[in-house]
Amino acid sequence: MRKTLLLVFVVLLQATFACFGQQSDNSTPAVTNITGAGYPRILPDLRVTFRIKAPEAQKVQLDLGKKYDMEKGSDGFWTVTTAPQVPGFHYYSLVIDGVAVADPASETFFGMSREASGIEIPEAGVDFHLIKDVPHGTVQSKRYFSTKTNSWRRIFVYLPPGYEQNPTKKYPVLYLQHGAGEDETGWVKQGHLDIIMDNLIAQKQAIPMIVVTTNEYVIRDIGAGYNTESTNHFMDLFKDELVDVIIPFVNQNYRIANDREHRAIAGLSMGGGTSFRIGMLNPDKFAWVGAFSSSAFRGTNGNIFDAEKQIPGIFTHPEKFNTQLKLLYISSGEQDHSYEYTKKTIETFKEKGLKLQYNYFPGAHEWHVWRKALHDFVPKLFK
Amino acid sequence: MRKTLLLVFVVLLQATFACFGQQSDNSTPAVTNITGAGYPRILPDLRVTFRIKAPEAQKVQLDLGKKYDMEKGSDGFWTVTTAPQVPGFHYYSLVIDGVAVADPASETFFGMSREASGIEIPEAGVDFHLIKDVPHGTVQSKRYFSTKTNSWRRIFVYLPPGYEQNPTKKYPVLYLQHGAGEDETGWVKQGHLDIIMDNLIAQKQAIPMIVVTTNEYVIRDIGAGYNTESTNHFMDLFKDELVDVIIPFVNQNYRIANDREHRAIAGLSMGGGTSFRIGMLNPDKFAWVGAFSSSAFRGTNGNIFDAEKQIPGIFTHPEKFNTQLKLLYISSGEQDHSYEYTKKTIETFKEKGLKLQYNYFPGAHEWHVWRKALHDFVPKLFK
Lengths: 383, 383
Fold this sequence. Notes:
By secondary structure, the first copy, chain A, is an alpha+beta fold.
């Protein structure tokens, strides 16, 4: 069994290395590394050292939003140590002679429209998204056939602790959307959805609920063309998939409190815009709406979007929304590229008499901000 | 919302391209591509064209077991069309100026001890592993705390269709192990475990059962050292994890027929050796044992392994195993590097009077062969 042994051997060598991975500089391997990978390593001041063996490469860069040139050592390893990083989850690529690829040392996360590397920069004292010794729910992968796309599609379903032990209990549902270039895996892998829910439920901050993560790219699955004028078309195709296919499928397969008062919709970035539009235009379906770091509030010439045109009555009859909606929630990172537009939108909504709750979190357009938004949003639901 | 729109736009351009991806040469994108990726493309004769944009690279190769040099076009795209490929699932890498990386156009699969590219080469007329319009079970991701490794670990649990609708029914369980350099995701992603089970159960070829996929790298999680002498130590550490931690956890969280007659163990390659050893040495725990494409039957100097030393009594008291085991199953691909050893082992076992069932499948040391082994093994269980 030489071949196998050799492979096991190599794997375990890495493992042993990683296990004794704490170095004299007190750096430790990122938790987003594959098991056994010693790099990237995070230093106590949150600088990060990246490393890859590429003896024949002419130029190797790290693209972490900002591009860093890596330096080649005589051992053929290229390394770079970045400036201190903002805590959170950051996608990154290694650029090898001009080609942006995933770091072989990193787990992959579907983002940037491909399987991408991601690095978790820990935030001191913040652990709402970290696994604890509390009752754990279940994440289920469910395939369903879509009569809209005529293809098999997938959702992930979070079932809270106790779902199996209470065979007659019916649960409210939150439908949760990803961002552009991501998919239904995002909230589970990058978002730590199940851990955040488990912790909130254990602390009695949130009531037990089911959470469903979807894939918004219906337009891609039906192979329709696309142009920048047809954002609404993109969102409305997903609305039909959600309302006509996904919700009935979930109702059929799980014990659901099946009415608008027990149904919420939320999402991040592109999914924030989608969830805002679907929620506001379909109050008969959703009583709780959340838009996290949505770029949909951006208009032209520094103005916000044309809300009254997009959501007829939102300014002329705010009372209609105020009575129908149990919650309209908007959030943004304080360093988000749409932060100013989101703030303007919130101020305008308030001036117009629209009831809403909102919050801002330190950080840019990234997953740790969206985890915080979910952690802030979920306790407000179904109460 | 320009940034978001731009990203959506790019994603959907790819999508449109992929949708009209059928080209004059009748090639089609591999099903293992990320949605929207036009390459790699499979030709009708199973040659495959790979393609990547790398205008600044000096040398780009495809490593598909065999290495192919790719050719640079004036447009900066490197391409290669391979010889016709054997149907099945094959890991591959792109080698960019000497660095083996995952193809950005491919989904990733944990194999070769990292997130690797994989390509599915379709086998004409074979669809036992393809999704059909039959009742579908559920794949659950479950976190558990291991008192052996003092860390949170993960299993995947396949629940057959009807599990939720039959709240008093107890089910038999198959514990399924991965190969070297893989993890608990292997049988789900590469193996199509749930689809194979759904199809077998729908055709009444297999009885409804629960299947649990594990992670064998306990030795890595506890950070123990390793040397090629200690294969048994590696396997025995996993045996303790499985028997003392995983099985009790599964019994506690699912409706399990909790006795040896309703408990099976099987695995592929390294996991085949592990499952063979654990199953044969613990007949009080497992009545059904399967070893797929195991390298553990290899000995030295062209001989098979020292079976009597590894499994005391297997040759001197075969009747003991014949009465205790409901099934000992061994399989191999006909092009597997251990095929001859496996055949020799099976012949020797038969000569010694050991009862077993076995089968060989066309193909090498790869996942499609292991899907076929599972599809052949599961209908024999718990009957």
